[in-house]
Design goal:
The complex is a heterodimer of chains A (540) and B (411).
Chain A lengths: L20 E5 L5 H5 L6 H9 L3 H9 L5 H7 L19 H14 L14 E4 L3 H12 L4 E4 L8 H4 L8 H13 L3 E3 L10 H6 L4 E4 L4 E3 L12 E3 H10 L8 E5 L3 H12 L3 E5 L11 H10 L2 E3 L2 E8 L5 E13 L5 E5 L5 E5 L1 E4 L3 E3 L15 E2 L10 H20 L58 H10 L11 H5 L5 E4 L4 E4 L9 H5 L5 E5 L4
Parallel strand pairs in A: 2-3, 2-5, 3-4, 5-17, 7-15, 8-9, 8-15, 9-10
Antiparallel strand pairs in A: 1-20, 6-16, 11-12, 12-13, 12-14, 18-19
Chain B lengths: L9 E6 H11 L4 E4 L6 H11 L7 E4 L3 H13 L4 E6 H16 L5 E6 L13 H4 L7 E4 L3 H18 L3 E6 L7 E6 L2 H7 L23 H16 L1 H16 L6 E4 L6 E5 L1 H16 L4 E6 L1 E3 L3 H7 L5 E6 L9 H10 L9 E6 L9 H13 L7 E3 L21
Parallel strand pairs in B: 2-3, 2-4, 4-5, 5-7, 6-7, 10-11, 10-13, 13-14, 14-15
Antiparallel strand pairs in B: 1-8, 6-12, 9-11
Helix pairs in contact in B: 1-2, 1-6, 3-4, 6-9, 10-13
């Protein structure tokens, strides 16, 4: 035995006494969760998908979004824009994952658990995304729900606004049939203010009414010639098209506007063999339409005339229309935050077309909302008519919030704690790329989603975007960094030089032993996903 | 498979680096911790390949520096594992603090160092400045001449290290040895296991009995453990002889701390190590054939310094020419300095004169012609003045690079 310096079996030195900094576990808000329009806990969903726990993922998803198969197709996915994976192979395909879960739920005929009816029935006026979402959550909170719809089919804008090539109708029907299976009643061809009044509702036993009637009225052009027969209301035209009518439009058509209605009109017209010209008074970056729709319209060959506005329209003897257009320039920012378009005097030109489509979007229809509800309290509006719409995702969130607010008011208990933090508006520090330890991740490319090429899209309304196969969905789930979220990878335990980090099987998490943690910060540095942080030891 | 383990030996064409890796593999190392550096890297690469099919539990630890590599070797060795690391030049210098730690903690770490020049200027070629600068760290130092010797020395090093509880550094010249291939006989695993049984640590980290190693110790205790370290170092040379004899019995190749060559009746001796010694052998043969009474003393074990064996070899020699590939700035060649201190104990009449030559720094060829020149100068100078001769320094007048030369404007 050589002579060495060694202590003779003393108790372990309590290195924790040296500590002036201490690590602590705290999940941050992942950027996708932060950006989600409905408030989904995306990262937890992805973790469940990665473990192939699809049912649990769907349950979690449907706590905030009842229609994953719909939003998995039409949501503008702002979640993917801030994705930290972007720097290492491209953002995770979050929308495709939602679509996968939505389609899985449809194939499994998944239906959430429904509590017994509680004797507090609620009427929902309108069956667009906000109304349907509100009905769904009211039903899961125990209320018997009846949805009143003025058209002969439910779905609102999902059915009469969004073209089939973006949202196939069998998907919409499948999502609607889930609501029926949950026991939600639908009363069709009942328009509030016409063949449905507050008195009717009271006498039918409804104690509360939610309004989700949308906007309903096209914004006028406000120029001479607006009422000519060749000037078509784009919203109404799309509605007719989606009812199955094939309108007799032909030749060159001017579509006025830069929003989704304009894009949908132009793209539907193109598929009917018509040549649309989109006329927009600002330039491309200011278009309110979804960037994806603009890009796809361009790919399909829709012609755009930016910084151009119509001044007047009149008929020509040959049968078409002559539009006088004026060139615009961009000025100061207006109240919408966008540069105001200003006509350039003397820049007028003429354009000959067969038809003009008014597609400036919709404004709220005067009148249908009563000032007071049945109990004398405030009317609960949601969705577009409450100014909380914009996208289907936002309407769904608005419907859900209305359901929770109404239910907690009339039941006297708040069910909100069962929702993920994001849906309750709780946002912590958002995890940034530089906070992650990128050494733990490889650069891996995002798989391209199947998409019909522009020539393949002509002449029909079949869905443009295909689904990623399950293998890609699983590899996407693995590619996700899980920013700011402890996924129990155990790196902290491996790296702790003082063996101060331990797995607590009973609690399903790691804990830090204060007796031995000397605050070196190695665990914080080696955490791949910024779920451990450092603070002064007396800061607690 | 024949039953005789000797018959299971194989022969391969190996570089010095591959031989080092094979040796570590045959020694059944359990923890390998290293950081890449030219010209070492192929040792750890080869070892990784070999260990990938090893049936015994083992672990590779990739680290961010040589300092950490040696630190984890120390930790693993303290836990009872047989550990291996390899490095070179700057990497060895970065380990310096922990080289002291490994010896002070009495851990049988084996380190293979590929001798390479120290920067600046940046130079990846053969030079012994790196390891000779680690002379006082308490590592046993062995300098090899052939790839076979590298393989044999690494296995012997484990046996020695675990016997005397000291770390061992096995050195080989960059490229001349590390990247030059020659036939190497590889002993069978059974034979090596017979020669080098599994490590039995006499003290170790134990989870059930927590203790602090290398902690604070008072002045008396400190000097005591340092003296014990010195005694352990003293025991190395005889242990090495015994182990070397055992190796010779098993494998037929003998190694000693000092290798005299044609020293019978020599008046003049060359002193060298590593590949310079190999070249010197040819020079000795050539001069002997022309009647010069010359021999070579090759120093294989540099730490501990085999003073007695050297003095025995040099009996009757009048002049010694020492060929150095490393320099102690402000003094002389490092081997030269060691030789002078070893000879100092002799009475003046018996003490040969020492002539120091610096040869082959930064990978310069130590050619037979240069070694001949060292012999000529030693023969012709009555006294060693200057004490150190820089052989063929070949200083050239400074010429600025062409882009610095002003050229007429194109206008």
């Amino acid at each position: 035995m050589p002579e060495i310096a060694a202590s003779g079996g003393a108790p372990l030195p309590r290195t924790g006494l040296w500590r002036y900094l201490e690590p602590y576990y705290q999940d941050l808000t992942p950027p996708c969760n932060n950006a989600c329009l409905t408030g989904e806990d995306i990262v937890t969903q992805i973790r469940l998908v990665q473990e192939k726990r699809f049912q649990e993922a769907v349950e979690l998803l449907m706590r905030v979004n009842p229609f994953p198969a719909i939003l998995g197709r039409v949501c503008p996915h702002p979640c993917e824009t801030p994705c930290n994976r972007k720097a290492m192979g491209g953002a995770v395909s979050i929308r495709q994952m939602e679509r996968f879960l939505g389609d899985w739920a449809i194939n499994q005929e998944y239906c959430p658990g429904i509590p017994k009816a509680n004797g507090l029935p609620v009427a929902v006026i309108g069956s667009g995304p906000a109304g349907l979402s509100c009905a769904f959550y009211l039903r899961t909170l125990g209320h018997p729900v009846t949805v009143f719809e003025k058209e002969n089919l439910a779905g609102g804008l999902l059915r009469f606004g969004i073209p089939e090539f973006r949202l196939p109708r069998n998907i919409l029907e499948a999502e609607l049939s889930r609501l029926e299976r949950m026991g939600i009643q639908f009363e069709l061809e009942k328009e509030f203010g016409k063949n449905l009044t507050l008195k009717d509702l009271t006498s039918s036993g409804f104690s509360e009414v939610v309004f989700a009637v949308g906007l309903g009225k096209s914004r006028p052009l406000g120029i001479p010639g607006e009422n000519l027969p060749q000037v078509v209301d784009g919203v109404q035209w799309l509605k007719g098209l989606h009812r199955g009518q094939r309108p007799s439009v032909r030749g060159r058509v001017a579509v006025i506007g830069g929003g989704n209605t304009a894009m949908d009109c132009a793209r539907c017209l193109l598929r009917l063999g018509v040549t649309p010209i989109v006329i927009y008074r600002r330039s491309k970056p200011q278009m309110p339409a979804l960037p994806e729709e603009i890009r796809e319209a361009e790919e399909e060959g829709v012609e755009f005339r930016f910084l151009t506005a119509p001044v007047s329209m009149d008929t020509v003897p040959e049968g078409g229309l002559r539009i006088v257009l004026v060139r615009m320039k961009l000025g100061e920012r207006d109240s919408s935050g966008r540069p105001k378009p200003i006509p350039i005097p003397g820049s007028e030109e003429e354009l000959s077309v067969e038809f003009v489509f008014k597609a400036l979007g919709e404004i709220v229809e005067e009148g249908p909302l009563p000032p007071k509800n049945l109990q004398g309290g405030q009317v609960i509006p949601c969705g577009d008519c409450a100014g909380k719409g914009g996208t289907a995702a936002q309407a769904i969130r608005s419907g859900r919030e209305a359901a929770y607010a109404l239910s907690s008011r009339i039941q006297g208990v708040s069910p909100a704690p069962s929702l993920p933090a994001q849906a309750r508006g709780i946002v912590l520090e958002v995890a940034k790329f530089k906070q992650l330890n990128a050494s733990y991740f490889n650069k891996e490319p995002r798989p391209p989603a199947p998409l019909l090429s522009p020539p393949e899209r002509a002449g029909h309304f079949r869905e443009l975007q295909g689904a990623l196969p399950e293998s890609d969905i699983l590899s996407e789930a693995a590619r996700c960094f899980k920013c700011g979220t402890c996924n129990l990878c155990g790196n902290c335990e491996i790296f702790c030089p003082d063996l101060a980090i331990r797995w607590e099987a009973g609690k399903g998490r790691y804990s830090i032993d204060e007796d031995f943690c000397k605050g070196c910060g190695v665990c914080v540095e080696e955490c791949p996903r910024a779920a451990i942080h450092m603070r002064y030891a007396d800061a607690q | 498979m024949p039953n005789d383990p000797k018959k299971r030996r194989s022969s391969r064409i190996l570089t010095g680096n591959q031989a080092a890796a094979w040796a570590a593999y045959l020694a059944r190392v359990q923890v390998v911790s290293a950081y890449p550096i030219t010209p070492q890297t192929s040792i750890v690469e080869t070892l990784a390949e070999l260990l990938s099919r090893a049936p015994w539990p083992h672990r590779f630890i990739n680290l961010e520096s040589e300092h950490s590599a040696m630190a984890s070797c120390i930790g693993a060795s303290l836990a009872g594992a047989r550990v291996f690391t390899a490095t070179s030049s700057q990497g060895l210098l970065l380990m310096h603090e922990l080289l002291h730690w490994a010896s002070g903690a009495r851990l049988p770490v084996v380190l293979v160092n590929v001798n390479r020049a120290v920067a600046p200027g940046w130079n990846i070629w053969a030079d012994q400045q790196d390891s000779l600068s680690q002379r006082d760290t308490g590592f046993v130092q062995i300098y090899c001449e052939t790839a076979q010797e590298v393989l044999d020395s690494v296995i012997i090093a484990y046996r020695l290290a675990e016997d005397v509880q000291l770390p061992v550094m096995v050195n080989l010249d960059a490229f001349f040895l590390s990247h030059t291939a020659e036939p190497v006989e590889i002993p069978s695993p059974e034979e090596v296991e017979g020669f080098l049984p599994a490590r039995k640590p006499v003290f170790r980290l134990e989870v059930e009995r927590p203790r602090a190693f290398g902690g604070l110790i008072g002045p008396e205790g400190y000097q005591r453990i340092r003296e014990d370290l010195a005694r352990a170092m003293d025991s190395v040379l005889p242990r090495m002889d015994t182990i070397g004899k055992g190796w010779e019995l098993s494998f037929g190749r003998s190694y000693s701390n000092v290798e005299p060559y044609r020293m019978q009746d020599a008046q003049l001796a060359l002193v060298a190590s590593s590949s310079v010694a190999a070249n010197s052998r040819g020079v000795v043969d050539d001069l002997r054939s022309r009647g010069v009474a010359i021999g070579l003393v090759r120093i294989r074990t540099f730490r501990p310094f085999p003073k007695e064996e050297i003095l025995r070899s040099l009996r009757g020699v009048r002049r010694v020419a020492i060929l150095d590939r490393g320099f102690s700035w402000g003094r002389c060649g490092i081997l030269h300095q060691e030789m002078q201190s070893a000879l100092y104990g002799l009475a003046e009449v018996d003490r040969p004169k020492t002539y120091g030559y610096i040869i082959g720094l930064g990978g310069r060829d130590a050619t037979p012609e240069l070694i001949q020149e060292a012999v000529q100068q030693t023969l012709h100078r009555e006294n060693p003045e200057p004490e150190t001769v820089w052989l063929n320094a070949n200083r050239q007048a400074y010429e600025p690079p062409p882009r610095w030369v002003s050229t007429p404007s194109r206008r």
